[in-house]
Amino acid sequence: MKRIFCILLLLSFCIPAMFAASDDDIYDDYEYDQNGAGDQFFKIDLTAAIPLNFKGSEANADINTQGKWQMKVGPAFGLSYYRFIDTTLALGGDIGFAYNATLKKRALLTVPLTLGIMYQPYAGNFEFPITLTCGISALSCQGMTFFPALTVKGSAGLFYRINESWSAGINASLMWIPMWLKKEYIGLYKNPDGTDKTYDHGFFSNAGIAVRYHF
Fold first, then answer.
1. What are the tens digits of pLDDT across the range 160-207?
2. Are 38 and 214 within 8 A, CB to CB?
3. What is the CA radius of gyration of the chain?
4. Side-chain half-sphere CA neighbours of 5 within 13 A
5. CA-CA distances (angstroms) from residue 174 to 122, 202, 205?
6. Which end of the chain is less congested by CB atoms within 10 angstroms, N or C?
7. How far is CA 180 from the centre of its chain?
8. Which helix (H) or strand (E) holds 167?
9. Do residues 85 and 108 touch, judged by C-beta distance below 8 A?
10. Is this prediction's pTM over 0.85?
11. Cα–Cα distance for residue pair 61/167, rounded to 1 Å
12. Is the peptide bond before 192 cis (omega within 30 degrees of 0)?
């Protein structure tokens, strides 16, 4: 009787330990996703704002600026917020500020505010966000203000997930801003054939570094 009691007592200690070890093995083999529904992040961008279609023409520039780029590369800053709806898709928005100087030492200030969707596949600790957003911008140049100006922006990046809370990497974007000129501004700008412009648009590219805080 004592032997049976000792055997049962020994089994009462061994069996739970065996199941505990088995459970640990299961959890050790489980692979966690980098992101899941409800995860969020803030992103800060420090980039160069590169104007792509601001070249002087005979109709709009003097002899010293014809054929030259009218806008110089300038600094830009961006702040973004996104919230994941599953492991790879997130919804959110961006706000930015860019400064570009002209050849005549005037300034173009651009403040875009856009909302959209992000698709982010990943491989190991590397994440590849691809974003498409749409919204409005406020622009100011040579005493003229344009608001709201339709804004469409696409971007792509490469980030390294340092730990659960931080990632850092590079990011590049292309932004299109079409503008319909107000009546008081018509006549200030000319088309290549010399007629007055009633519509214009700008293409800008941004490229630089970024850091993200995940929570």
1. 999 999 999 999 999 999 876 666 656 666 655 666 666 667 899 999
2. no
3. 28
4. 2
5. 22, 11, 5
6. N
7. 26
8. strand 166-180
9. no
10. no
11. 45
12. no
